[in-house]
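Subject: for your reference before the review

Hello V.,

The reviewers asked for a structural picture of the protein, and I figured it would be easier to keep everything in one thread rather than splitting it across files. Below is the amino acid sequence we used in the manuscript, unchanged from the supplementary table.
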Amino acid sequence: MDKKAMKPSNGIFKREEGLSGLSPKERKAMEAYCADYMGFLGKAKTERRAYAESVALLERNGFRPLDSFKTLKTGDRFYRGYHGKTLLAAIVGKRSPAMGVDVVGGHTDAPRIDLKPVPLTEKGGLAYFDTHYYGGIKKYQWLVRPLALYGVVCKPDGTRIDIAIGDDPVDPIFMITDILPHLGQEQAKKALSEAIPGESLDLLIASEPCPKASDDKDVKEKVKLNVLRMLGEKYGITEEDLVSAELEIVPAGMPREMGFDRSMIAGYGHDDRICAYAGLRALIDQGDVPERTAVVIMCDKEEIGSVGATGMDSSFFENSIAELLFRYDAKGYSDIVTRRALEASRMLSADVTNASDPLFSDLDAPNNTAILNAGGCFNKYTGSRGKSGANDARAEFLASLRGVFAKHKVAWQIGELGKVDKGGGGTIALFMSRFGMDVVDLGTPLLNMHAPCEVAAKFDAYMTYRAYWAFFKG
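And here is what came back from the structure prediction:
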């Protein structure tokens, strides 16, 4: 990349489009990386699928389960998973991990619609799944679009049945319906937040009565019965089995290149698989053993506050680092070693940010909102209204990262999540900074964040990966 095109001169900070500064070789590398990412995104429709795809990628590149190591030494590559949703992977560096580790952490859950514990219902001769939305969504965006069903159904005997319906070309799709405009005058008068109640997001799944009960007047819910018949015949699932299931409704369809110039990627779940995948690839693609132990964490539940056993507010990360230190030096291990190692660690919180949309520019903070094609974006702080609930990175840490990115010719930018008092948000940075480590958010800018189809620039996706790679390299 032409360094002059990437960074301003004379110490004046100026964001410039970096795409035009790419050499043919770098552009080819960007396209190859983005093609790999699109392949991952199309398969990783849920946090469980993201976990499975990530483990497979790690194992193809020489990573082994942490439990398979009696002791750890410099250069060892390992991973540790939890409940098939949250994953930590690492390369043991040249320095002792007791001196601190470098972490890139992102989440693999995304806003979606979940099935309720007792979901199957029939209304007016149609069968539906009753639902409960997950994360911050605009409910109207999920209506009248092709939807797929993913997840697992677990039976008392230990059997786990994987469900994936809607993305194979031979599969049926599902849909949440909406009223026609001819009859929607009253709906149109309501605020967007009120026009579509959460309880109305029922998924239409069938309309044909069960053939065996079509003439039986005593059977009241014949379409529901037909669904149960099909579930039983194909999967061995009963209605009661749906109580112990995790079934998620996500947009059907694969990620696509966007625009005449193919410079963007449109797809479901960029937030935050685009950053989690970048961190994973940055770790895998380290050539030489890094000086400091390099760690990637891919977690669950960020979209609902990082709660639960698989969220970053759990002890999974802390426990994993403790086990790393113990297996590296059992004789020198103690609780205080873990505490000091966490304090001496550094982290890039790998989460997306909003990109300026010229159609809604009144929400942007001038000069402080990310733009497409300028690289990954720092958010020095998140939170809302007076930085409430924020991790606010210290100046020294940001300065050190500027030096690393200049050394490795990484394009970057810095911004906030819109105007002060207009909104805000949070990431896993808050939960990691409690250990005393340096943390700052750095991720890919998006258009349509939290929508069923989000948009990212290829250049920004690639430079986010390059930023994480450079961070580990030092």
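For the response letter, the relevant points are probably these. The chain has two domains: 3-110+268-473, 112-251. Residues 24-43 form the longest helix (20 residues).

Happy to draft the paragraph if you're swamped.

O.
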